[in-house]
Design brief:
Layout: E1 9-10, E2 25-32, H1 36-50, E3 57-64, E4 69-76, H2 79-86, H3 89-98, E5 107-111, E6 114-118, E7 127-133, H4 138-155, E8 159-168, E9 171-178, H5 181-188, H6 200-207, E10 210-215, E11 219-220
Parallel strand pairs: 1-5
Antiparallel strand pairs: 2-4, 2-5, 3-4, 3-11, 6-8, 7-9, 7-10, 8-9
Helix pairs in contact: 1-3
């Protein structure tokens, strides 16, 4: 994964813990792609050659959008583990080569203010949606999540889980994992259960400040 570069860091304690009881650290990368095939090969090579020495690495979700923008979420047990990985000489060499797959600068945002819902990340997903929220009332969003989760399996079985990365007090980037795009589109058009009808107007109000980006061919590591 890219060398650690702190553009924006959120450090507020979050409800998600990793398997060892610590906080998850996520690095979000975004940039215009010049060589999509080359970028995919670089990620595959990282998994084969560099992954064995990457302490605390939990997984990566990546892909390229329809407009040619690559988005990546790299997850580690902690910021310290991510920094240790970034300091390895072989990591620096890999990233130097990988930058050649981009057209211009790559933005990188780091955060250990991370929330998960349902199963969290899922390697079974065949469709991934990125949501970028801003001007969001965090407590309202969390309350809506808590009301939704008991109904998720019956109402939206297409939604496997998700990871929300807070980048500021009222801004986040979220990745949602779906069984496939066809089922996700059908699911989003289904009416809510009666128990959630009253919350839908509030949910739509929150979503008014959210931008959606689709990864139709997600790279899951």
């Amino acid at each position: 994964m890219p060398p650690l570069r702190r553009r924006a860091v959120a450090t507020k304690m979050a409800p998600h813990s990793n398997a060892e009881g610590g906080m998850m650290f996520v690095q979000v990368m975004e940039g215009r792609v010049a060589d999509e095939g080359g970028l995919r090969r670089q990620f595959d090579r990282w998994m084969t050659e560099l992954r064995p020495g990457a302490k605390g690495f939990l997984g990566t979700t990546a892909g390229v959008t329809a407009d040619g923008t690559a988005v990546m979420f790299a997850r580690f047990d902690s910021a310290a583990d991510a920094a240790t990985n970034s300091s390895r000489p072989e990591q620096g060499e890999w990233w130097s080569e990988t930058q050649g797959c981009f057209d211009g600068e790559v933005s990188i945002t780091d955060s250990d203010d991370v929330e998960t819902f349902l199963a969290g990340g899922s390697d079974d997903a065949r469709f991934v949606q990125i949501m970028k929220g801003h001007g969001v009332a965090r407590d309202r969003l969390r309350a809506l999540d808590e009301q939704f989760e008991p109904h998720a399996t019956s109402w939206r079985p297409d939604l496997l889980g998700g990871i929300r990365v807070w980048t500021d007090a009222d801004s986040y980037v979220e990745v949602a994992y779906f069984t496939n795009e066809e089922e996700a589109r059908k699911g989003e058009s289904k009416p809510p259960p009666a128990e959630l009808s009253a919350q839908m107007s509030e949910f739509q109000s929150v979503m008014a400040n959210v931008d959606f980006v689709d990864l139709r061919d997600p790279w899951l590591y």
